[in-house]
């Protein structure tokens, strides 16, 4: 799945979901958490992650907090109130999509 393009449409939802479960995260931490949760099946590259983070920030869904860690600056991302609301909306949308795909691909699993 690491070469699959299917997850790209869900990248923002993945980021929002992780940030809803963690008060704040930095980019590398996000990539590693996804890799851990998917047992390596899904690997988010920096080239995909950072443009998505910047877009979410520009849309007012994320706040950025810069902290000095080991004499380096690290950007932490956290959800805004608008980001929390959008996370709920995106997760509901994704759930409906998954249910629709299950109905199409395996009708006996459909509820």
From TrEMBL:
Top-rank taxon of the source lineage equals: Bacteria
- Provide the Transcription regulator PadR N-terminal domain boundaries: 15-86
**Segments traversing the membrane:** none
Q: Which protein, by its recorded name, is this?
A: PadR family transcriptional regulator
């Amino acid at each position: 799945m690491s070469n699959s393009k299917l997850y790209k449409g869900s990248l923002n939802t993945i980021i929002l979901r992780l940030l809803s479960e963690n008060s704040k995260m930095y980019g590398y931490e996000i990539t590693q958490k996804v890799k851990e949760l998917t047992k390596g099946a899904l690997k988010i590259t920096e080239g995909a992650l950072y443009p998505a983070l910047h877009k979410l920030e520009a849309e007012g869904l994320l706040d950025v907090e810069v902290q000095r860690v080991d004499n380096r600056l690290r950007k932490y991302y956290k959800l805004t109130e608008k980001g929390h609301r959008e996370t709920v909306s995106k997760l509901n949308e994704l759930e409906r999509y998954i249910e629709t795909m299950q109905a199409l691909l395996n009708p006996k699993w459909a509820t």
